[in-house]
Please model this.
Amino acid sequence: MHMKRAVGIAILTLLLALGVAAETVVKEGTVINVVLDTPVNSARNQHGDRFTLHCAGDDCGGFPQGTRFEGTVVAVQPKTKKAPGNAEVSITRADLPNGEHVRIDALPATRKGKVREILSGSSGRKDLKKKSRAAGFVGNLIIGPAATIGGVVASKTLPAKTEELDARPGDRGYIRIMKPVTLK
Model:
């Protein structure tokens, strides 16, 4: 009985030494805080352009500290008079600190893990509505009801200024792992 136990312990020790049993699985749905290394801009980037990210903190969601992620611009639309610039991207590779490259399937997400399929520049419409409603409220206090109506009308009739998507190195965000990843 002691001989079987000793053999079992020896085999387990050997497997651990070889790294066979030392796998880490990054679960589907894991959200990782990342920092952009290369710019993504709806006016300058094209389909197929690559960009890189790295972990923003100590917790890389199961990936080793120092892991870099590589993404690709899938589609891009520069701004128009009516719509802000946008880009669709996917993150397809994790470059581990030991030099290993691992295929992954990840997408941009919110901190809570809601996937953001299309990244967009600002239309300024929300800011414009907030400012005009605030001006209408303040005007109501000072001038009267006509200012309130003017603020609401302005928020609906003034054209919004659209902007390009302009993500710069150092910008922070989140990615969500869409399929489990096994690391050895």
About this structure: The chain has two domains: 24-122+162-183, 125-157.
